[in-house]
Design brief:
Elements (H helix, E strand, L loop, with lengths): L1 H12 L2 H14 L1 H36 L8 E8 L11 H10 L3 E6 L5 E8 L2 E10 L7 E4 L4 H5 L4 E5 H8 L2 H4 L3 E4 L2 E9 L2 E3 L2 E3 L1 E4 H6 L8 E6 L5 H15 L6 E6 L1 H23 L1 H20 L1 H9 L4 H35 L10 H27 L3 H5 L1
Parallel strand pairs: 4-11, 6-8
Antiparallel strand pairs: 1-12, 1-13, 2-12, 3-4, 3-7, 5-8, 6-11, 7-8, 9-10
Helix pairs in contact: 2-13, 3-10, 3-11, 3-13, 3-14, 11-13, 11-14, 13-14
Length: about 400
């Protein structure tokens, strides 16, 4: 505060335009050295602007994909967890959907999310009701076949009820792969013919027992079930309160209320967490890039020290004709501030342009805000003040008698 008071008082005693012109002429005296000194500030500010702009872009894109839709409606996901981890019961059915729609007017839309292509289910194989892991395929398979053949593209696309089973399943229920070939198995009241036996493999981390055509399996589903539902509420609804009411209703009246628990994923907390993480990473990387500003500041200080030593006679003449110490100090300080501020403005322009170019090769646009411009201006000015104060003070403190000797 004392420094800014000193500058303010000094400029009151001097003509502002005269001070600025004098500082600018001093910078132009050795233009090449001044430009080289500005390069460090320009690069430092440009680096920070690029990082912040791209960070803002990825944050905006991420939040846009998670938050409310364009009409302002907010969405939550409610999941069901069974008490028995080995159970294959589904937590949601069409009855649960109708229950929620009729009992809560704040709900705009509900949908049951599809199961993954790899999941567990019951099947009837060789006359026995057993549990197995399934993988659904929407294209021709290319498995390591022991006997039989892979599912062809025509079989997958024509809704034919064909299936492939693993060699361990074939040995367990048919004694050998050859016995399993052309046998039948039933899944959700649909009978499939085994066309091939493959070596054991994993899909999505699960050991696959049976491979079915996705088109055939989906078309045979007469009842929509799942363990997760997506609930979209009307605009201006208190999302947290509404979500708690839905979960409370399901735990009281849901189809599987006695077998498990219904819970909701708090998207609001998730958004806040994601935003904080992205911002934290952006600021951290920006701080690392900002180290170059410190180095550039040292360069400004070094240039001013050289300038002060070269202009000793000029300082002496000005002091001899009545210039005050604070006027000498302000002149040199303004030279530093002009250098760093110009470098900062150039850095902002360069950084903004570079961020726009880089974003053309990324799946999200760079976001350049007015605050980035203000921050660039303020930081570059502060760097000039901090690293210019000592050389400026040295110039002001030179002894007139020693200068004139």
């Amino acid at each position: 505060m004392a420094l800014f008071y000193l500058i303010q008082e000094g400029i009151h005693d001097m003509k502002v335009i005269e001070v600025l012109l004098t500082a600018w002429k001093s910078i132009q005296t050795n233009l090449k050295r001044s430009l080289l000194t500005m390069v460090g500030i320009t690069i430092g500010i440009a680096s920070v602007v690029v990082i912040v702009s791209l960070g803002n872009g990825i944050k905006k894109e991420t939040l846009k994909n998670l938050q409310a839709d364009s009409s302002g409606r907010q969405t939550i996901e409610i999941t069901y967890t069974d008490k028995n981890p080995n159970s294959y019961r589904r937590g949601f059915s069409t009855e649960d959907i109708e229950l929620l729609k009729q009992s809560d007017e704040s709900i705009d839309k509900i949908s049951i999310l599809d199961n993954k292509n790899s999941f567990s289910n019951k099947l009837i194989i060789n006359g026995q009701l057993k549990s197995a892991t399934f993988h659904l395929t929407k294209k021709a398979t290319n498995e390591n076949i022991i006997i039989g053949s892979n599912l062809s593209k025509a079989q997958v696309n024509s809704f034919q009820p064909m299936a492939m089973i693993s060699d361990s399943v074939a040995k367990k229920y048919y004694d050998s792969p050859s016995n399993a070939l052309n046998s039948s198995l039933s899944v959700d009241n649909t009978t499939y013919t085994v066309t091939g036996v493959f070596k054991n493999k994993k899909n999505d981390g699960l050991s696959t027992d049976v491979i079915l055509p996705l088109t055939t399996y989906k078309s045979a589903q007469t009842k929509s079930t799942g363990d997760t539902i997506k609930v979209t509420f009307q605009r201006n609804v208190n999302i947290e309160k509404a979500a708690k009411n839905v979960v409370k209703n399901l735990n009281k009246n849901g189809s599987q209320k006695t077998n498990g628990k219904y819970e909701y994923i708090d998207i609001g907390s998730l958004l806040s967490g994601v935003s904080n993480v992205i911002s934290g990473i952006t600021y951290f990387i920006s701080a690392i890039a900002g180290i170059s500003l410190f180095i550039a500041g040292i360069g400004v200080m070094n240039m001013l020290y050289i300038s002060v030593s070269e202009r000793t006679k000029e300082i002496g003449v000005r002091r001899a004709i009545g210039a005050k110490k604070k006027e000498i100090m302000i002149q040199f300080l303004l030279e530093a501030v002009i250098l760093t501020t110009l470098g900062g403005l150039l850095g902002f322009i360069m950084g903004a342009g570079l961020a726009m170019i880089i974003s053309q090769f990324l799946p999200f646009p760079a976001v350049i805000t007015a605050s980035s411009f203000v921050t660039s201006f303020v930081i570059s000015t502060v760097v000039g003040v901090i690293f210019g104060i000592l050389p400026a003070r040295q110039a002001a403190d030179k002894n007139l008698i020693d200068i004139l000797k």
